[in-house]
Amino acid sequence: MTVTLVPYHQDERLPDASFPLPGLDVIPVTRELPDGDVWTRVAALYELVSAEVADQVSGGTTPSVVSGDCLVAEAVLAGVQRAGVDASVIWFDAHGDIHSLESSTSGYIGGMPLRQIVGDHPELLADRIGLRPLPEERAVLVDARDLDPGEEDFLATSKVRHCPVDDVVLPGGPLLLHIDVDVIDKDELPGLKYPVGGGPSTGAVLASVRRVLATGRVAALDIACPWHPPEGDDTTVRARLLNALLSA
Questions:
Q1: Number of C-beta neighbours around residue 55 at 10 A
Q2: What residues make up the domain containing 237?
Q3: Strand pairing report for 88-95 and 175-180
Q4: How do residues 26-61 score in pLDDT, each as one tens digit?
Q5: Nearest-CA neighbor of 14 among 37, 45, 44?
Q6: Which of 58, 63, 205, 234 is the most exposed place for a label (fewest CB within 10 A)?
Q7: How far apart are CA 170 and CA 138, in angstroms?
């Protein structure tokens, strides 16, 4: 199995130990990032990610991308689109990731990728990497139990679908399947940067992921691993989870 690894959290290069992928053929995507703000820096990195994904899709491969955050999903979708595939998005996450610049109280850009995918502030990233906006009704947010008021307000009036792990309603056509590992309950996955309780078990998430993959319509798989450097048995637990998701 081949995995495209983007070993970054936004523009921060992460240690290799953050991504236990033993026995897999890993294609790392790295580069020296230019000076400038964070959007300029990630856009330079994501151009390489998008090109790699596009090459794989055009060659008849379903890319599997692993990274340190959810923002990379914008580059993965841009690459799928560049290859001529018009994919909808299935977004597994404990968080909404659907803030705009205006609604975010923290300014954390990792809380914005799904909102940008559906067209918010394209000048920040989408325009730079060639990402076309996705109609809201073709985005499905799975779980997302930790929502800020601004995200709740947006979801209340948007066409983005919000559903539980055990009842994912899929749009037609090709799919980008995005999985933030923090969708799993924090008690089952220690070391997360943004842990959330009250969530589904690892088994429930894997079963749901397998149902999506079983459609045969997944054009690309994107896995975000926003966790701290490993301690103790973390590496074993994480390697087991990544292997299960990648082989699902």
A1: 14
A2: 2-246
A3: parallel
A4: 999 999 999 999 999 999 999 999 999 999 999 999
A5: 45
A6: 58
A7: 9
